[in-house]
């Protein structure tokens, strides 16, 4: 009987370890996928708006926005965000992602 309990405990431990490893892999894949999408969005914005006067004028406001974690929203940044969203309506990026993209220009 104790041998049966030992084998049952070993099997239960193996199943539990496998489920934790699988959830770790799924979580890691989700995070990496999200970071890649964010990186692609900021890369698309920074390359297509490199010479745009409205976007370039918003760099200081974008820096304040990023540094204050969104608390400071300047007029030039708001104008640039509206301009970017009008030019690229298919872009699904947050204000923070767009502000970081403006800083990379």
Automatic annotation (TrEMBL):
Q: Which UniProt keywords apply?
A: ATP-binding, Helicase, Hydrolase, Nucleotide-binding, Signal
TM segment ranges: none
Q: Which Pfam families match?
A: DUF2388
Listed GO MF terms: helicase activity
Extent of the signal sequence: 1-21
Does Protein transport appear among the keywords? no
What InterPro entries does the record point to? Answer: CHP02448
Q: What is this protein called?
A: Holliday junction resolvasome, helicase subunit
Q: Which organism is it from?
A: Pseudomonas syringae
């Amino acid at each position: 009987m104790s041998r049966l309990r030992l084998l049952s405990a070993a099997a239960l431990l193996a199943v539990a370890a496998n489920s934790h490893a699988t959830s770790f892999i799924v979580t890691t894949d989700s995070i990496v996928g999200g970071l890649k999408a964010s990186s692609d969005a900021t890369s698309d914005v920074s390359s297509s708006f490199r010479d745009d006067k409205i976007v370039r004028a918003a760099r200081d406001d974008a820096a304040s926005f990023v540094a204050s974690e969104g608390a400071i929203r300047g007029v030039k940044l708001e104008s640039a965000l509206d301009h970017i969203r009008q030019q690229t309506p298919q872009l699904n990026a947050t204000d923070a992602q767009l502000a970081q993209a403006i800083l990379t220009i």
